[in-house]
Design goal:
The structure holds 2 protein chains of 2 kinds. Chain A is mainly beta. Chain A has a single domain, classed as YVTN repeat-like/Quinoprotein amine dehydrogenase (Methylamine Dehydrogenase, Chain H), CATH 2.130.10.10. Chain A is about 10% helix and about 40% strand. In chain A, strand 24 and strand 25 form a beta hairpin. The termini of chain A are far apart. The relative contact order of chain A is 0.15. Chain B is mainly α. Chain B has 2 domains: about 70 residues, Rna Polymerase Sigma Factor, Chain: A (Orthogonal Bundle); about 80 residues, Arc Repressor Mutant, subunit A (Orthogonal Bundle), CATH 1.10.10.10. In chain B, helix 1 packs across helix 3, helix 1 crosses helix 5 and helix 4 packs across helix 7. The radius of gyration of chain B is 18 Å and the shape is elongated. The termini of chain B are far apart. Classes of the chains: A mainly beta, B mainly alpha. Chains A and B meet through helix 1 and helix 2 of A and helix 1, helix 2, helix 4, helix 5 and helix 8 of B.
Chain lengths: ~350, ~180
């Protein structure tokens, strides 16, 4: 006997007409959800990357000083394929380093590590020794640390830009900026790029009280800079690259990373990681074998460290780190990452669980 | 490369939407709401589609999405206390009596708190085990037992002495509630 209750539920439900579902709306809304989640995952990376290019010398008024040195490129090349879980740093070679406390966001600075902890303290790990070198504030999922060559920069608890040289411990604090929500967005050699609610700036620490406004549109953030060539966010999901009067527009979703010599641009479009030749505009797709990918750091002139995910739309995303060749698009098999929220990459951005 | 296979998803929707719609209807008691609920649950399923892979997982995932979404709607008060389709008349004799009892039971079922109602629908319409029901509701088996017990007690009290327990509930229900 099934009972009156079960009989009643069957009687009521089993005679329903078939539902009139809007399959197109389901897939459209679902795709929108996926996009939002992806943006949340790499939101910091995305925010830390899009560009318009101007000549560095012109931007900075041709200033000549020791601070005008431009870095040749990343130093910690293979170590870009490393990550942290809690307070442990895992390198691509399999070696691990136990840091003093949990890592919130971190970067390689040469063969040293600079990281923020959950309390906002900035740590320097160098030659097996560790010490606190400052305090930083975080603005959501934006970059907390930016680095180039021997320098690392952040925004301190007093809302001032700070640039620190790991070779000699020199720390320089920047001037007060006019707007709110100040953040360091990029560094090219000695020049720190920043943005706040009032605009976008370049700061030369050799003159701590001076900075140059690059524009008043806070959305045109300088997110990458190499050899004086800048990259800024541009409206309409487009990356703009300008060099010597030439302009290259690249359709990309929210992210771009310039190679050390500014010849290649790593972007993501329609879930695929792409590398664009900035001279010819030719694109190469990164053959990651994963559902979604983005080249997040250049390991050398033609190899890009790549973050890939499977199951992007689901609750459990599987992350991978790969090394991809920008010429052929071929990628290494890669290292599987812990669950999202359980790892941090050396890009100065905190990856949250959701 | 594992991407969203729209054709496979459409096939799943075509094959299973009628059954899922029935569950949705029992959860919310209104055909229009049930359709909206199913549409929203299927959107969540589509988002998770690459990792669901086989239809059995997809159906279980959708059923869970139906249930949790219905409970969420209730919390947001977008639905909840609603007028029923027909007000049951006082029970009399014979067929009229039976119709009135069923109408009263339906009304009482719809008046249950959403978690109790969901637990009863999953146990006695979907025929899930207590463990499976706990999995869908995201709670402990003990919680399922208490939700079902409380819900059945309320239904019994609403029907009064019009019908005996043995006629009202399946045998397994009696085991749960006693």
């Amino acid at each position: 006997m099934t009972g009156l209750l079960t009989d009643l539920m069957r009687e009521r439900a089993d005679h329903l007409d078939a539902p009139e579902l809007d399959l197109a709306a389901i897939t459209r809304d679902g795709d929108r959800v996926v996009r939002r989640r992806r943006t949340a995952v790499v939101g910091g990376v995305a925010a830390a990357s899009v560009l318009v290019v101007v000549a560095g010398a012109a931007v900075l008024g041709g200033r000549a000083s020791d601070d005008a040195v431009v870095a040749a490129g990343p130093v910690a090349e293979l170590d870009q394929l490393s990550w942290t879980t809690g307070r442990v740093l895992h390198t691509g070679s399999g070696a691990t380093v136990a840091l003093d406390t949990d890592v919130r966001a971190w970067v390689w600075v040469g063969d040293s590590v600079v990281y923020t902890d959950p309390s906002g303290r900035v740590h320097l790990w160098q030659g097996g020794m560790e010490r606190i070198i400052g305090s930083a504030v975080a603005e959501g999922d934006l970059a907390e640390l930016v680095t180039d060559a021997t320098f690392v920069a952040w925004v301190d608890a007093d809302r001032r830009l700070v640039r620190y040289d790991v070779t000699d411990g020199t720390l320089v604090r920047g001037p007060s900026m006019p707007g709110s929500r100040l953040r360091a967005t990029a560094i090219d050699g000695a020049t720190v790029y920043a943005a706040d609610s009032e605009g976008v700036y370049a700061w030369q620490p050799s003159d701590p009280d001076a900075y140059r406004a690059l524009g008043t549109d806070p959305r045109a953030v300088v997110l990458d800079a190499e050899n004086g060539t800048l990259v800024r966010t541009a409206p309409g999901r487009t990356v703009v690259f300008e060099r010597d009067g030439d302009t290259l527009l690249v359709a990309a979703r929210e992210f771009a990373e310039l190679s050390p010599d500014a010849r290649l641009l790593s972007v993501e479009d329609d879930d695929a990681g792409l590398v664009v030749d900035t001279a010819s505009g030719v694109e190469v797709s990164l053959d990651t074998g994963h559902e979604w990918a983005i080249g997040y750091r250049w390991m050398d002139a033609t190899t890009v460290a790549t973050l890939a995910f499977d199951g992007v739309g689901g609750e459990d995303m599987d992350g991978w780190l790969l090394a991809c060749d920008a010429v052929t698009g071929a990628c290494s098999r890669g290292e599987q990452l812990p669950a999202l929220g359980g790892f941090q990459l050396p890009i100065g951005i905190h990856f949250a669980a959701d | 490369m594992p991407r969203r296979d729209a054709a496979a998803f459409a096939e799943f929707v075509a094959a299973r939407s009628a059954a899922l719609h029935r569950t949705a209807y029992l959860l919310v008691g209104d055909r229009g709401l049930a359709q909206d609920l199913l549409q929203e649950a299927l959107t969540k399923t589509y988002v998770a589609w690459p990792r669901l892979r086989d239809p059995g997982k997809a159906e279980a995932y959708t059923r869970k999405a139906l249930t949790t979404t219905a409970i969420t709607w209730y919390r947001r008060r977008s639905w909840g206390e609603r007028p029923v389709d027909a007000v049951p008349e006082q029970a009399g004799d014979g067929l009229a009596d039976d119709v009135a009892i069923r109408a009263l039971l339906w009304q009482a079922l719809q008046g249950l708190p959403p978690r109790q109602r969901a637990a009863i629908v999953l146990r006695y319409y979907e025929d899930l085990t207590e463990a499976q029901t706990a999995g869908v509701l995201g709670c402990a088996v003990g919680t399922v037992k208490s939700q079902v017990s409380d819900g059945l007690r309320t239904l019994r009290s609403r029907l009064g002495d019009r019908v005996g327990d043995a006629d009202l509930f399946p045998t397994t229900t009696m085991e749960v509630t006693r």
